[in-house]
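Notes on consecutive records. When two proteins share a document, each keeps its own sequence and its own token line. Never mix them. Below: protein one.
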Amino acid sequence: MMNDFITAIPKGLAAFTATNLDDILILILFFSQVNGIFRRRHIVSGQYLGFAALVFASLPSFFGTVLFPRPWIGLLGLVPIAIGVNRLLNSGEEETEEELSEQSETSWVTNFLSPQTYSVAAVTFANGGDNIGIYVPLFASATWESLLAILAVFFSMVGVWCYAAYCLTCLPGVAQTLTRYGNQLVPFVLLGLGVLILIDSHTLEDRGLAVLALVISCMGLIHLLRLAKATSSKALLEKIPALYPSVKADEN
């Protein structure tokens, strides 16, 4: 039993590193976007939440079943695409929201349940097709002792990954580059990530799933365009008193 526990540790380290090398790049980009409304705690909580969902989706293999076929998992590639499009459409509103957000502090529980946390978790889970593909056979061949060791290694390494990504963003050269180009780069990275997930999971090779992905994309785009239009109209109405102070004076 103890031998299974010990031998599972390097196995867990190898599996985590092999499946999460690309995640550290995404984490670096996330940490470069930290501001008044998007905090480091959102990134760490979201990374843990998304990774826990990947582990949960892979665990049924330990009991001899598989939860989802990989092409269906590939549909999650639409999540980073939606987030990327939303950032492109609402890039001008981030500064105003940041100024408003800095006026109040929220608890850890509130931050864990925030949309920012779920956005990071969604990207982490959507980028985990390879993770599930490797974790399923890994868990299927594990004993209870080795499974506990692997899970302990996995969740410890999530914290190491987050810390390493944060330290990289603190390097002067990396920090200056990401500060200058990060806001413009992140939406396109998310769009590319979503497309790669769809292709790598062979989702688009299934006609039914390809049509479903197209329908979901169109519905999501329409929704995001409506939100962007409503947000821009609200911002314009709020600016009118400042642009025409005489109007406000007449009303008084």
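Protein two starts on the next line and is unrelated to protein one.
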Amino acid sequence: MSQPENLLIENFDDGVTLITINREKRRNAISAQTAIELQDAFAAFDRSPQRVAVIAGAGTAAFTAGADVNDMPELWRCVPSVGITTEKPVICAVSGWCVGGGLVIAMMADLCVATEDAKFFYPEAKLGLTQGMIAGLAGRIAHKVAMEIMLLARPVDARRAYQAGLVNEVVPNGGHVEAALAMARELATMAPLVLATLKRFVNEGVLAHGPTETLGRTRRQMDVIAQSEDIREGFSAQREKRAPRFAGR
């Protein structure tokens, strides 16, 4: 299988998959195509026998600079538990800047590793825009720290992010991917049904879902119908004046 244009995907024999946003010259900014490729890559991961996924950015300057302002994406597509649906663990490996939608991805991942020079930054209050999904940060880390990140638009370094509960491990610069892979390999030895059940219980019964997050989930569900074989069959049958033969996919 060929690599997507904007991603590097590595499937290891130990059940771990590494998905890297490969747009280093653009600080791994997420374009419209990149968001779709990430959604497709995680769908393929979910269907596969692989057990744990790590998401990282190429190079060390930035995990991602967020949405590509020259090619705005539907960011909900590449956010874990919103456009990305899998009950397998997802680990975020952050180096350098983690901005805007990148912070949302890190927030929504199950676990996060960051380098000492990592900076988490949500600048939208300074830009006059937001898609609102960042509101879920207040339900995942210390409330006042979340409000500081969102309202004051101040970068938070890795140590502060660790203290607030956004990051699980802070590692030396350049060591984020290996540390995340080590965590993933540990997880890959655990009982998959237990991991899936606990993740589902947390996502469905413990964490609060903001309005934008709920909207993203709804859009994903409607997208399944809009892109299905059945919708094409239904319209074909109508044009051909015959009974449709639906396959449920």
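For the record: The chain is about 40% helix and 15% strand.
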